[in-house]
């Protein structure tokens, strides 16, 4: 099983939920008993604590091709300006981004901020010009607008050489060549293949890194009625297992909590499922700690140096929706 971690950037209504639903359906981990209406990317159960807004939602799709299965973690990005480094924290978990753009509306100013952060972090963009079925679609103009936007945001040459897919999430297909006779006939396969080809696997997703001491930087927190506090992040090194003794390290403060991991949850389709272990490179959620928070490092008790975390700006406390 190989892995990809990507973020998706899209203006509201450009079709992100519809497209991700299609990936889930066609990728084979979508469950028949879950309604498409359970749209995870739309859920509004935001938690706010210490001014940190919790907007990242992770969906995971599996794609089997030529005998190899790849799990693709797709993280939603907040569609607004940065609150306390949140956008960067989310983007620091991934190796590439999908910029999804409505073929009639084109790139919107509201997604510029997140796009600029993604480019500045050196992430590889993959562009999906969506809703190409719209009668008012301006497909090639919109493609050029994305290029101009990237250029204006100082994208490097490799980033400017982005692959583009043309899609109708509503009709369930994506292609690279709209003029091809079979452009609409391969469902989402061309998009799956492009993601896997273009976006690198996480550098630390190796057995060697998985054998090191466990370390994970907390990116988001939420609370679950059964499991209590859930900390989500990408495992930097090592392997997380239930019952493992850990502590939370806060930059400048040292140990802020000591405890045990009760559950390790991995993303599967629209849900998170308890797993026996989560390895370096994967984005997982863990329960068991009650006060650890965003930007803390969860690690083995003998590790005393936290991972580098982006500072959290206090002014975010004032922000309301
Ligand atoms: P989100 O806000 O980005 O998650 O967008 P949604 O997936 O909820 O879609 C917003 C609206 O656009 C809905 O009315 C969808 O039916 C419509 N829509 C989504 N994908 C397509 C598409 O490929 N073509 C067309 N014509 N409409 C679409």
From TrEMBL:
Family: Belongs to the TRAFAC class translation factor GTPase superfamily. Classic translation factor GTPase family. BipA subfamily.
One BP annotation, GO: ribosomal large subunit assembly
Keyword Hydrolase in record: yes
Reactions the enzyme catalyzes: GTP + H2O = GDP + phosphate + H(+)
Intracellular or extracellular location(s): Cytoplasm
Major place of residence: cytoplasm
Broad class of enzyme this protein falls into: hydrolase
Alphabetized GO MF terms: GTP binding; GTPase activity; guanosine tetraphosphate binding; ribosome binding; rRNA binding; tRNA binding
Protein's name in the database: Large ribosomal subunit assembly factor BipA
Function of the protein: A 50S ribosomal subunit assembly protein with GTPase activity, required for 50S subunit assembly at low temperatures, may also play a role in translation. Binds GTP and analogs. Binds the 70S ribosome between the 30S and 50S subunits, in a similar position as ribosome-bound EF-G; it contacts a number of ribosomal proteins, both rRNAs and the A-site tRNA.
Source organism phylogeny: Bacteria, Pseudomonadati, Pseudomonadota, Alphaproteobacteria, Hyphomicrobiales
Enzyme Commission number(s) from the entry: 3.6.5.-
Chain residues that bind GTP: 13-18, 130-133
Segments forming domain Tr-type G: 1-203
Key words, A-Z: Cytoplasm, GTP-binding, Hydrolase, Nucleotide-binding, Ribosome biogenesis, RNA-binding, rRNA-binding, tRNA-binding
This protein's record includes keyword GTP-binding: yes
Listed GO CC annotations: cytosol; ribonucleoprotein complex
Origin superkingdom: Bacteria
Subunit relationships: Monomer.
């Amino acid at each position: 099983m190989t892995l990809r971690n990507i973020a998706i950037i899209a203006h509201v209504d450009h079709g992100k939920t519809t497209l991700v639903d299609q990936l889930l359906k066609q990728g084979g981990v979508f469950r028949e008993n879950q309604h498409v209406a359970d749209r995870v990317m739309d859920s509004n159960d935001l938690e706010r604590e210490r001014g940190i807004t919790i907007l990242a939602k992770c969906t995971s799709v599996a794609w089997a091709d030529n005998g190899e299965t790849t799990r693709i973690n797709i993280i939603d990005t907040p569609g607004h300006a940065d609150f306390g480094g949140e956008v960067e924290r989310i983007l620091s978990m991934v190796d590439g981004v999908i910029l999804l753009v409505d073929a009639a509306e084109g790139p919107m100013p509201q997604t510029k901020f997140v796009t600029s952060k993604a480019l500045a972090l050196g992430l590889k963009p993959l562009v999906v010009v969506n809703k190409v079925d719209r009668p008012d679609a301006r497909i090639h103009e919109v493609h050029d607008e994305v290029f101009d936007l990237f250029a204006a945001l100082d994208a490097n040459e490799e980033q400017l050489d982005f692959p583009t897919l043309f899609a109708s999430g509503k009709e369930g297909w994506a292609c690279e060549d709209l003029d091809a006779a079979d452009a609409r006939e391969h469902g989402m396969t061309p998009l799956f293949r492009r993601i896997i080809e273009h976006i690198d696997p996480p550098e630390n997703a190796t057995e060697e890194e998985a054998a090191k001491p466990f370390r994970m930087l907390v990116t988001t927190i939420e609370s679950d009625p059964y499991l209590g506090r859930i900390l989500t992040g990408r495992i930097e090194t090592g392997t997380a297992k239930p019952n493992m003794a850990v502590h939370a390290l806060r930059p400048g403060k040292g140990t802020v909590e000591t405890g045990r991991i009760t559950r390790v949850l991995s993303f599967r389709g629209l849900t998170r499922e308890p797993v026996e272990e989560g390895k370096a490179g994967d984005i997982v959620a863990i329960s068991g700690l009650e006060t650890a928070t965003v930007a803390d490092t969860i690690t083995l008790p003998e590790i005393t140096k936290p991972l580098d975390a982006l500072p959290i700006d206090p002014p975010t406390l004032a922000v309301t929706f």
